[in-house]
Amino acid sequence: MEIKVERKGKCYTLGLPERKRTVKQALQASIDKWTVIAALGNSGMIEHSNDRVSCGLCQKFNTAYGCTGCPVAKKTGKDFCEDTPYEKWVNEKSRANALKELNFLKSLKV
């Protein structure tokens, strides 16, 4: 599945990874997603940008029981992106908050 968005004549495509992908590939998919969100700011261009369907890491690790193995959960010690910049972005969809989430993801070591 892919998400395609267009803004000012530019088209962005976000591929959604499957559980088979490596941790590094899943993280890169999440970084790619947040790169687009940060570039487009608060345009509302991705309807599902705040759900696990469009997150590479969530596609690989998120279950009803938690996020075992996810680099985000390993760093924070919590499931479902608690205590990350993502929570701030959910409450206020701004470019600044998207950049914080992007930088957080880039800081993860896999």
Rg calculated over all Cα atoms: 13 Å
Secondary-structure element order, N to C: EEHHHHH
- Terminal CA distance reads 25 Å
- 3D shape: globular
**How many domains make up the 3D coordinates?**
1
**Secondary-structure-derived class:** mainly alpha
Query: How would you classify the quaternary structure?
Result: single chain
| DSSP strand tally | 2
Strand content: 5-15%
Q: Give the neighbour order of strands across the main sheet.
A: 1-2
- Low confidence ranges: none
Please give the count of helices. 5
Quick structural summary:
The chain is 45% helix and 11% strand. By secondary structure, the protein is mostly helical.
Which features would summarize this protein structure in a list?
single chain; 110 residues; mainly alpha; two-stranded antiparallel sheet; 5 helices; 2 strands; 45% helix
